[in-house]
From TrEMBL:
Ranges where the Uroporphyrinogen decarboxylase (URO-D) domain occurs: 31-40, 149-165
Phylogenetic lineage: Bacteria, Bacillati, Actinomycetota, Actinomycetes, Mycobacteriales
Binding site for substrate: 36-40, 85, 161, 216, 335
Protein name: Uroporphyrinogen decarboxylase
Protein role: Catalyzes the decarboxylation of four acetate groups of uroporphyrinogen-III to yield coproporphyrinogen-III.
Amino acid sequence: MNTSAQDSAPSDSATRPYMVESTVGGADRVPLWFMRQAGRSLPEYKRAREGTTMLESCLMPDLAAEITMQPVRRYGVDAAIFFSDIVVPLYAAGVGVDIKPGIGPVMDAPIRSLEAVRALPVLEAEQIDPVAKAVSKVRGELDDSVSLIGFAGAPFTLASYLVEGGPSRNHEHTKALMYSEPEVWDELMSSLASMTTHFLKAQIAAGADAIQLFDSWVGALDRADFERFVAPYSREVLSTPEIAAVPRTYFGVGTGELLSSISQLGVSTVGVDWRVPLDVAQTRVEGGKVLQGNLDPALLLADPDVLTAKVSEILDAGQRAINAGATGHVFNLGHGVLPDTNPDALARVVDTVHAFRSSRAY
């Protein structure tokens, strides 16, 4: 079992079954994990988090490691997703941000000028040392058959929080800045790409076997805007040698019209939300990628028989996608676990997926 950053160098990640494209627990098994599996819906998470804020807990190595491990112990998923938050790099660097219950990340002040962009702090190694320690601790505790996925918010989603000052339905300030002051936008995105790269490299060096880049709000853009204002910076992150050496997933919500562009960013896996069936997504994804997804999280609250039937439908769609050229299917949700989800529903999904046998699961 790997217990150090040196032992868990990127080249070792390919030895973990979840990450080997030809075999996963035998060639016929579909691997799975859940976005937001660590936290929110788990009673043990709520007990562990008592007395700490979300952002504080992300920078407490022992606590972050414990929360990361909880769903692995409970469900037997094939990968742990490191417990963190999209805005942790901003918070660690010293940007004024807080996560408000029921709202999400809220900035002390929006960033909408060149002066404000140039005043953003640079993320230093010592500021994310607690993250590296937590990743190393988790990798040491995980069985060798379970992968550890590191993650970061993509530059666009970080930019949208900074420019809007918090969550936004229309992203009006973000789009206005992109169009009206493209030089300011480009400098902001370049700065955030550097921050994201630094954050992911630290996790990989500490033992993360793969990474996922979350671009939660990029579905607010059309394809032309994505290509001009977003893709160059996400591609910059994903092409960094240390990051390019491990499996890479890119996920955003409402990105059905962007799947072709996303597949050209230098990713191994394309995350698909629940709006597009996997076999349809395959026709939009270029280059033969692994597809990840895509159960609607709301269906975890449905009748158990309805849930099982929907999971089976997605597994069948994943098989059709593989038959049409996808290089694999990782079962996941089409977004994160909702707070009111009964943990037993996730256990039912795990049992259903692991019982499924495919002629070429991954």
